[in-house]
Amino acid sequence: MSEPLYRAVRAAGRLADTLENEPGPPVCLAVVDDGGTLVYLHRMAGAPARLVAIATAKAYTAVRMGQPTQSFRERLERERLTLADFQDTGLTSLPGGWPLSLTGNLWAGLGISGRTLAEDERLCRRWLDSLNTDSQGETGGVAS
Question: Hey, what's the signal peptide range on this chain (predicted)?
Answer without folding.
Answer: none
